[in-house]
Known about the structure:
heterodimer, A: alpha/beta, two-stranded antiparallel ribbon, 11 strands, B: alpha+beta, Butyryl-Coa Dehydrogenase, subunit A, domain 1, Butyryl-CoA Dehydrogenase, subunit A, domain 2, 7-stranded mixed sheet, 13 strands
Amino acid sequence: MKILVAVKRVIDYSVKVRVKADNSNVDLTNVKMSLNPFCEIAVEEALRLREAGKATEIVVVSIGPKAAQDQIRTALAMGADRGIFIDVGDTELNSLSIAKLLAKVVQDEQPGLVLLGKQAIDSDNNQTGQMLAALCNYPQATFASKVLIEGDSTTVTREIDGGLQTLQLTLPAVVTADLRLNEPRYVKLPDIMKAKKKPLAVTSPAEMGVNVANTITLVRVDAPAERSAGIKVESIDALIDALKNKAKVI
Amino acid sequence: MSYTHPYQDADFVLRHIVNFDELCAEAGLAEANMDLAVAVLEEAGKMGSEVLAPLNWSGDQEGVSLGEHGVQEAPGFKEAYVQFAEAGWLSLSADEEFGGQGLPNILSTAVNEVWQSANMAFALCPMLSIGAMESIGHHASHELQSTFLPKMASGEWTGTMNLTEPDAGSDLAAVKTRAVPNGDHYLVTGQKIFITWGDHQMTDNIVHLVLARLPDAPAGVRGISLFIVPKFLVDADGNPAERNAAHCLSVEHKLGIHASPTCVMEFTNAIGYIVGEPNKGLSYMFTMMNHARQAVGLQGLSLSERAYQQARVFAKERLQGTRRDGSRIPIIEHPDVRRMLMTIRSSCEAMRALSFVAAAEVDRAHYAQDPAAKAAHAARVELFTPIVKGWLTELSQEMTYLNVQIHGGMGFIEETGAAQHYRDARILTIYEGTTGIQALDFIGRKTLSDQGAALSLLLADIQATAEELRAANTLHASILDGLESALARGVMAREWLLQSAAADADLPGSVSVNFLMLFGYLCGGWLMAKEASIAQAQLATGEGDASFLNNKLITARFYAEHLLPRTQSHLSALLAGSESVMALAEDAF
């Protein structure tokens, strides 16, 4: 079975995010970028399934600017077999366009399982996996904390509010990874070298014949308001008064 | 007490000061380039922060112990070592024939900064393995190499260096350990002390390199041979079998690096195999000396960087003092705290530049085809090595001290962790040749013995930079003036030394440390000025990260204004010569 894993290049989790001066977007100039942590978990799961003999090939796909090939290389260094890079330049696509592009890749590659991160830590939309499943007409299991494959079905444990839910899906299917699905491995030095030689195909929305016209426009980005200094109150009454009338929380 | 690799500064130095891409292309290393370096450093940074750094404090507190099975390393170290070895980090610069990646020394050095910052006590183990691999790789027979190198490059076995004996420290000519021929091997008997990672349970074998004398060996340094003495003898299949008579008798109780076992090793007719030819052991040791000394210098940078990261967090969080509106002031707003933080920060940047440039010279000397170029780079390695070892480790004393100072009373308390870096740093000016030894090497073997020729070439390079920067005139006057003044002091020190040394036997030893420190600060200032000029040029064309580049201009200026003037006091002390150093009669002490 072939597994397709979609990965995204995002601002590194350790970076303090700045907003551009004109509030048009987050400032990504010279900021450290990394593989989205949930995508890394998805790659790791694919590797474990292959190691368990449930999969034979792992294909990693990413959509973004040229530099997003770095994240494909990271996934290849982790152990994926080959990469597909869809070059969209600096255009920021919304989730539906990304899902449409991925659906085309699914159509071409015919994977038995599509793994994604449950969301990307930059925009936190949590949409792509669901949209992709709908476009492909595949069953989906999101927020996976356990994935088992038996024959032509997969049993997925999902983390839901207040507990766990177990679903059985007929393959092919779309599964999105939650934080506790696994702990990604450390990349081995020789594999960083090997990753440079693994095949990486480059394509574009135009070549794929997918219309990625944006239907959503980003209007404005604001940083959270700075927390102002606290005040000291003289008495319990003053505290209650402040909570009622100043903070308006009771 | 977390650690994050300062990837941006390392990247800047590799890319623009070391010219890594050019170095790899000239060396014919098709696989290596900046893209690879970035990927490698990123993965190293992850392992350093997530696996090694969390064990630094616990390792210091829990330490090691000696039991019936030998030395038990600190809790968590074995698991970390297995992860480290499995990720292939020991193979980075090892020979491809024996499972290595064959990457250049400079990349290994940049990666080593991560390990040493994250957990120096741990990182000493792979550092010693790499040194042992280098000795075996250069001098042992192919048969011995095939037996031991693949297992060492994979990290399955570790390596140690057994040089020091109770009566043979800096003076290795006094080595007493004996090796008697016995068929196809030797029987080694004697006691070695201060053996770093001499025993542990992390791997199923340990490869000891031991200096010993053959029965018919001439006295002194020309009678010392080098032997491989494995902890477990290797069977026909290449696996560890019978226990060899090489045991750890005790572990030292030390001021710092508590998680690094420092062993007394006892060899009792232990089976050993000679490396290379008889009586050449010491010269074999010297081939890896440059590497080891530069690596210890790098530890000075690494601990200073770790101290800086801790100091900066504390300075932002610690509130002392009150504004008029009643709000509290984080101590980072106090100018004297800023002075201390800037001192550590700018020193770290200068140390990083110098240690990387010196490591790259090792590669350039190794890969150069043209004999003249090879000789020139080799001479530069010889010159830089005692400076990197001496100056960086001396500086690390001050930088870890300043971290404690910024923490105030909290720094004196162990739980804060600032004290650990201060204690750990203390060994750096001692092992692998004390500062005194480095300074004698620099002033004697590296300067006086060639009439200052190699040094004058270095001074000419610095002068070329100074002239170029003066002509461009784009940098702050302090950087230009500071570099020119320090350069003039370097030139004067060299000339004065060459004129005065012959007439006074006590002179070189009396002034050597001042001589070395003067050149350390000067080299740091030279490279910081270079970095500033590149930063300025990039800002002018709009490439690169403007905030990083602007900060570089500030740290370079601070270095020029606050660190470079120290060259004056070193010069003044130097020019005073040996008289007051030696005047007080011995029995007056």
